Amino acid sequence: MRRLGLLMVALVLAACTAADPVGAPQEGAGGEAVTELRLAIGGESEDGYDPTLGWGRYGSPLFQSTLLARDAELNVVNDLATGYEVSDDGLVYTVAIRDDAVFSDGEPVTAADVAYTFNAAAEQGGLTDVTVLESAQATDDTTVELRLSEPQSTFVNRMITLGIVPEHAHGDGYGRDPVGSGPYVLERWDEGQQLIVTANPDYYGEQPVFERLVFQFTDEDGNLAAARAGEVQVAVVPPALAAGDIDGMRLVSVESVDNRGILFPYRPSTGETDPDGNPIGNEVTSDLAMRQAINVAVDREALVEGILEGAGSPATGPVDGLPWYNADSAIAYADPDRAAELLAEGGWEDTDGDGLLDKDGTAAAFTVLYPADDSVRQGLALAVVDMLAPLGIEVTPEGASFDEIEPRMHTTPVVFGWGSHDQTEMYNLYHSKMGGTDFYNAGYFADSQVDTNLDLAMGATDLEEANAFWQAAQLDGDGYGFTAKAEAGWAWLVNLDHLYYVDECLDIGSPQVEPHGHGYPITAGITSWRWTC
Amino acid sequence: MLAGRLAGRAARLAVLLAAVAVACFALMEASPVDPVDAYVGAEAARIGPEQRALIAERFGLDDPPLVRFGLWAGRVVRGDLGTSMIFNAPVTQVIASRFAASLALMASAWLLSGALGFGLGILAALTRRSALDRAIRVGAYTLASAPTFWVGLLLLTVFAVTLGWAPVCCATDIGSDPATASLGERLRHLALPAATLSIAGVAPIALHTRAQAVSILDSDFVTFARAQGERGGGLVRHRVLRNAAVPAVLLQFASLSELFGGSVLAETVFSYPGLGQATVQAGLRGDVPLLLGIALFTTVFVFTGNLLGDTTHHLLDPRLRSTSRRRAGRSRAVEVHT
Hints:
heterodimer; A: 533 residues; D-Maltodextrin-Binding Protein, domain 2; Dipeptide-binding Protein, domain 3; 3 domains; seven-stranded mixed sheet; four-stranded antiparallel sheet; B: mainly alpha; two-stranded antiparallel ribbon; 14 helices; 1% strand
């Protein structure tokens, strides 16, 4: 026993003596310029930092620069490009690029590199979908032509997110040794632990204030502990852990379209199956009055307060707050009386006195699936059960894994979460031709007017025009649309707020409305962050 | 004789590797995890069917399982373990870099549990039926029944979160080059995971050593030595230690497999970027090449451990050097205990 005691003492001593900060703290005392930031916001790209495999789809691509970018209001602005034109048929994008950009290895960025990047991304099996690109070709040193196989207004999102890689230095090891024309260059990456980047002196844009960024890849508890210890200037924090002040840090809440909603199977069950043989259809949720009534009944403010602890906002659709959001599609909710009226008008009544509504012999009862490891979605599902019970609708919540959910999602409502700056997501969730394709339109939603508007938006050659059609798909002037006032394909519940502890001295500007994914997206504006002390 | 034994061992290892590979591949095929779904994750609404096909092609998933296994096995024979889907890097490279991080952790935990277990076992035997002996035995039973992850969480909560003495993550301090990390810094990061991992190994060694030491202390030759006036440290050093070490050494080498399993849990709890963490990810995300690579590597590792155990046992106990038959019998008997 004495040995054990001695050993414990030795261990403890070793821990104590070494506990003084080893890394020199970067806090500038007395107004010294602060040039290093430490961030505990995740964002490790395990398969490397190669844009042609999907790096840079959220937040700052750090090492590379993109043709276009989104500003804080999500407007599309030029970055590497000086302008672009779309042919009348929507098939050819002609992009002019600046002539003063160089890669971090000193080589100039040419139109040939841009063409190479797009062609490579189109062929690679990565997390950026550029399959619509037929070919990209440089017509001179600063002009590139991107030819599409079909019109796709959302292609602009590829120009916004696809970082340009150098043709001469792009190969198998690129993801671990990225060369680009972005604001930062890689100093070191210790996989699973940290990423250190330093400012790129050759960057064509404004030099970032912070010369060195250290991203630490810790879990939630580690992030919080690092923030408490003053070791990081930005830390991502889940709402459940956000209670309590941290000295020298403020809690920043960033709006997002990181939404949660219930997918309704839209078709009645007729014995149809998807190509894999999984059944399609639900007799209860295929009823329009039922879907609208659920939307009207659910008290989203209560969900935000009760489940998200205030860190969120009520959701009305899949694209709330984005430039292509249609504010007219918002409904009045938390109104059980109106919901009851809708149900009565739709023919739902309790004919057999069992407390449950029924219609044509079908009882108003269904299951709602949620991913069992997600406590927020579980909470939402359980709360909705309680909100619908008084109406005579019996909802059974059931946790499952995505592998179990997938074969059942055409027949059973599911609590899903989406949210993207790419309108493709809205198109895929609601276009009838996407019915049953992977996780797209899993409920087989189908409305010809919605299809028309989505197709018009996709085929538009002008972003303003496209936005108008995207808004019409949500709700058009004639009252058609996929949102709750019309077809009510989903019951969108909440948008999460993304919470960060940020050093009181750090000004992060006004962050973008963030997409699905809490953490790294906050870096979208990182080059304009300022130190204010 | 020696060459023949080595060839026999090598053949056994080859059969074992083949069996492990087949079993592991079959399990991964039967698992509901779809590697493409796992890779796409939250991008699911933006990655179209054509892009999914490209991903499947890059991962080499577009052939039927038997063809894939055949291709994989063919490459393995030539020394190529394939490319990890998650890390987009050669499997050998992933294993090498992760194992380098795990090695320090496993080695320190292994030495710690061996030394501690052996010391406590001897101590308990020498103070047989005293309060100290009882305390050691109760302690050993408690440790043996405490799950590694639970011990890890407990240590993490007390020492890292509440007291703030130890770092909550990683193998070295954040923000600096790990190659320049001082020994103190490394130890500070290593202390909690190593302690967690060693705890599981202490109990069996202590209990077996105690039992063995007790029987030696009761033996005729110790009685004879006592009768000749040998006492205390000398008696322990000359008569007991070497004999009592036999089960401890065998157990210690046999425990390499448990050490490996324990490291999966300990590394996950302490965000320690070693092979254990990579194993968990490979399993959860259906990274077949990486998981198979790790399985083969682990097999070789554990096999070598057992081989070393046998060899060391051989060196410790001169009686075994004459006949190999008895050696095999003895080591099998001990394996049954574990």
